[in-house]
Amino acid sequence: MPRRSPPARAMFAATVTAALVAILAGCSAGSGRSVADRPAPTESPTPVVTTPAGQPPAGQPPAGVAPSRRFAVGVRELTYNRGGDRRLPVTVWYPAQGSPGGGVDRGAEVADGRFPVVVFSHGLTGRPADYRALLVRWAAVGFVVVAPTYPHTSRGASDVQVLDVINQPADASYVLTRVLALDGVAGDPLRGRIAVDRVAAAGHSAGGVTTIGLFTAGRDARLDAGIVLAGTALGVGTEFSGAAAPQLFVHGQRDDVVSYRAGKAAYDRVPWPKAMLTLPDGDHVGGLLGSGERALDLITDTTVEFLRWTLYGDDRALRRLPAQATRGGLASLDNQL
Length: 337
Known about the structure:
The chain is α/β, with parallel strands linked by helices. 28% of the residues lie in helices and 20% in strands. The protein has one domain: 3-Layer(aba) Sandwich (Rossmann fold). Strands 3-1-2-5-4-6-7-8-9-10 form a 10-stranded mixed sheet, sandwiched between helices.
């Protein structure tokens, strides 16, 4: 989500809040209260899952080892259409052949190996390129990052519609289906390079709403984990369902667009292994779009360790995560992973 002047940010915040509260009120049973105001349930909305002997506990991936090397990064553009006016341009960043640390190489040959997938959702009036600093770093450590541009909430859309956020979980699932299928398409650069059974969702702001929706009303059973950056459950609810999928929430306490309280309320309702990274001085975009380099490094390193654990099954990453999250005193971590 691009940076705004204070008056514009205030107007945006009011618009988002009013619109999503209206959706929630229309979908609720007449309680008249937002998700953030509702008390937490006394019981988990997800049934208890028993684990066969010899298997990892629910919500934990099979043991594995994430790549320790850095990769060069390639990028390609795809375009899909879910029907009607739902045209979905997609940017894909991926580990590539070549020397790491250089610029992103359009159309570079994909590196050897099979790489997990992270589908990323941008914020309102944003675009995937706004998050390049974060997403390229994910690709450089061994993830295929799939970032749709949504038809009615992206910058440049002819008719920006805040309420269309509730349709985006279905868009993300559709894009995910199309990209995962490339693993079996003869001649496609990603053929044989996608770990189709290791998939996470992530998103910022309205993209955080989209991400939560992929684990609630629009549950995509293929997802193994989620990362919610400055997000809220308004419009998509907190009825988390399906198999346990660990969640990492990241939120600044000075966020004046999506309140920290709203993000924390959604986090509190997650019934699975979870953690919340809290930045006391963090605002809505700081650290994500380059406005705070130290915060960007912290968020990147914490999310990388989370993805290494949830998608590669690397227990070493889980052990490193708390120290990464709290180094330098920039943030605190509620760790229930």
